[in-house]
Design goal:
The chain is 62% helix and 5% strand. It has 504 residues and is mainly alpha-helical. Strands 1-6 form a two-stranded antiparallel ribbon.
């Protein structure tokens, strides 16, 4: 959203000697009042007016010294769209505030992830999802009524700080409701839905040119998710690990009825025992529950060298992935061509990326795709540096290849990370990787700012992160056809043992 709400619009210096009270953005006198920079008129510079000019009509070429420039005192913005830049006059020396919006958003996500991870592991995936949706709708609408930049930035922080866990909570809920053979399909469906939502945003921005109305239209539907409490079940795995066996059994029975399936005799017997005498069953499980409670302590992770190395490796991968993914999304509206079309193409490339993931994940495994996608993204970024001045189609094609690689890694990294950590701490550890990785998306907005001072700087930075990440992830374990680990020991054994155990 902040790509458009805090997007740049064209602006120029106001020339008091020539501009009327309600001056238009385009004007013929710019040829002799404003210097040219790379084929366009400078935004923040104007030619100095010659001194001792007392004529009433001062808007003439001979009255401006084209050898001397000065800073603008006022700006005129193009008025075909309304963002916070032209509403609060954030041009020239104030334009860094636009990048700050994206960075604040990233910081808010960092704050949110441990919070929603704790809520999800303690109170359930569904609870975390619905709470996040409520805060998203409320704070998004409130932000549309911001009266100044400070209020806008505060709400830009609070919104992701309280709601950005919606994706992780919903994703984990979907992943934990299916078996290993269906994880890739579920991940594909969820990510394609996200892609189509982003395409819808791109189409919407073509017609809705005011940032306030855009926020209201986009955030209002989030209130619908309040009803999900009655429509979606809690994670069976989470219920089981919390020893809420009756509720877990009810979900399984409901799923069987919905799918018109017949449970195996052994499964029916286990469910009857769980629901027949829950009090006695709970007593029999006390020892197991206590053991799980102790194991749930995050401190035990610090004793596992295997999991610590895995967290560091995944965190760096998340950082590189989010840095390139977010940066390329933001740069899509800056490359040659129509920014709305470029944004939509940039998003649509995620559908073939998701198809590649869905197909190849079950063929060659997770970590091979993770490696190849990041390395190809980095190489495409390097190639784009040498295509400056090339035809628009060539620049766009190479850019989309880079985005394809970033999208493939973005699509699969959540699946892979959820498969290498134990159920008791899965959301918390996935959140830790995502938190450390969010440093990438937090810094990405400033690549646009740096690009104004050093050409292609953003592409150099993207490549310097993604290529090493693609190499390092090869040292992580493969999870293809492996059951989700429930305990720390099972998580450590991934890649070491071949046996598969029965999944609830």
């Amino acid at each position: 959203m902040f790509i458009f709400t805090a997007g740049e619009v064209n602006y120029r210096c106001r020339i008091p000697e020539c501009d009327a009270q309600n001056a238009a953005f385009s004007a013929d006198f710019l040829n002799f009042t404003t210097p040219a920079v790379e084929g366009n008129f400078a935004r923040c510079k104007r030619f100095r007016k010659l001194s001792n000019i007392s004529l009433e009509d001062q808007c003439q070429g001979e009255f401006f010294d084209t050898n001397q420039t000065e800073e603008c005192s006022e700006l005129i913005y193009q008025d075909d769209e309304r963002t916070i830049q032209n509403e609060w006059n954030l041009g020239c020396s104030e334009d860094w505030k636009l990048s700050l919006v994206g960075t604040v958003n990233g910081i808010g996500q960092v704050v949110c992830l441990p919070l929603v991870g704790y809520i999800s592991d303690r109170y359930g995936r569904r609870t975390a999802f619905i709470l996040s949706a409520f805060f998203a709708a409320s704070l998004g609408l409130l932000r549309s009524f911001s009266t100044n930049f400070t209020m806008f930035v505060i709400l830009e922080f609070l919104d992701p700080a309280l709601s950005s866990g919606m994706f992780n909570a919903g994703f984990l809920l979907g992943m934990e409701l299916v078996g290993p053979s269906r994880r890739a399909l579920v991940a594909f469906c969820l990510l394609v839905a996200c892609t189509m939502g982003s395409v819808g945003l791109g189409v919407l921005v073509m017609f809705v040119k005011h940032w306030r109305l855009l926020l209201r239209i986009v955030y209002l539907p989030s209130f619908i998710f309040m009803m999900y409490y009655w429509f979606i079940p809690e994670s069976i795995r989470w219920l089981y690990k919390k020893n809420r066996l009756v509720e877990a059994s009810n979900v399984i029975i409901s799923a069987a009825k919905t799918n018109s399936s017949q449970l195996a005799l052994k499964a029916q017997t286990m469910l009857k025992e769980a629901t027949k005498n829950p009090s006695e069953n709970d007593l029999n499980k006390i020892e197991s529950v206590n053991k799980d409670a102790k194991e749930s302590r995050l401190g035990l992770i610090l004793k596992s060298k295997t999991l610590l190395i895995r967290i560091v490796n995944c965190s760096f991968y998340w950082a590189a992935m989010s840095f390139a993914y977010t940066g390329l999304n933001m740069n899509s509206v800056m490359i040659a061509g129509d920014k709305h079309v470029n944004f939509i193409l940039n998003i649509l490339i995620e559908i073939p990326a998701n198809l590649i993931c869905c197909w190849l994940m079950e063929k060659i495994g997770r970590k091979t795709i993770l490696s190849l996608s990041q390395i190809s993204c980095g190489l495409a970024c390097i190639a784009s540096i040498f295509l400056k001045g090339a035809p628009v189609s060539a620049q766009t094609t190479v850019f989309l290849i880079g985005k394809l690689g970033a999208s493939v890694s973005y699509s699969i990294v959540s699946v892979y990370t959820s498969e290498i950590f134990p159920t008791t701490l899965r959301h918390t550890l996935v959140s830790i990787c995502s938190i450390l990785g969010r440093t990438g998306s937090t810094l990405a907005p400033f690549t646009l700012f740096l690009g104004k001072y050093m050409e292609s700087m953003e592409m150099i930075l993207f490549a310097s992160m993604t290529i090493p990440a693609g190499i390092f992830i090869l040292f992580a374990p493969e999870t293809l056809n492996q059951p989700l680990p429930d305990t720390i020991q099972e998580a450590e054994d991934i890649g070491k043992v071949k046996e598969c155990r029965h999944l609830l």
